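Justification of resources, computational component.

The compute hours requested in this renewal are based largely on the per-chain cost of generating structure records like the one below. Each record pairs the submitted sequence with a full structure-token output. That output is archived, and it is also reused by downstream analysis tasks.
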Amino acid sequence: MFDGDFWRQAPALTVTELADLLFPCHCLLCEQALSQPFHAPLYCEPCRLQITTPLDGACYRCGIRLPFRIAGEHDVPLVTRHQTLRGCPDCRRKKWAFDRTVAVASYEGRWREHVYRLKRPHHSADAFQAGKLLGERLLECEWWTDYQMLVPLPVHWRRRFIRGFNQAEKIAEGIATVLPLPIATRALVADRYARKQGTLAASARLINVQNTMKLGPDASMLRQQQVILVDDVLTTGATVNVAARLCRQAGTKRVAVAVVARAGRF
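The structure output for this chain reads:
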């Protein structure tokens, strides 16, 4: 057994360092061992570089990946940065109630499989880790300091009962470990059980989300605030647009959207 001298000479470990020692981490995508601290998002650097989309390679308004053409040694976007700040051509045809969107990566490949698991029962920890990565993504955006609150999109109680959690809330909790922003979990509530958006065509999704949400008991917190709506995937934008309009009705000044994945291409 170790004597008293050993313990006095042993270096003091913080809670985080002790967790690193007792619970070695592995990347959630490739399962390779990680050398990064326990509190960091559980994704290795090669996987991060593979999945993430450069912020200047996506539409400022809806977050969709923009088309590129080859010009010499570099890829050049077909849509200029000036056009991107006003929204891509598709955005300019729509009346979005939100002002900007940021996503970790496109909804494809290995990242698509990982994000799909975030909605499954007993995977709340994965949603939390994805939220940490999204928080780091938001940290790259200079504008995040203008916003005061995170508002996760609600899910109906039946769906929450099946999953055991609301993945948007877990993602928001992960973001809050990176950015010092409060979470308004009851600002919006689910009002109607709807079919899963992923099972419907784009035209049917607009109808499916109507009257699925309403302002919740904490809606007064939104007044005169600038908020960031949080969800897992943005595809047509129908769901987040309904939520953004409700926030506007509650008196919100500006609404941004933060998602783990952006589906679709320009």
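Residues 16-51 form one domain. The first helix runs from residue 4 to 9.
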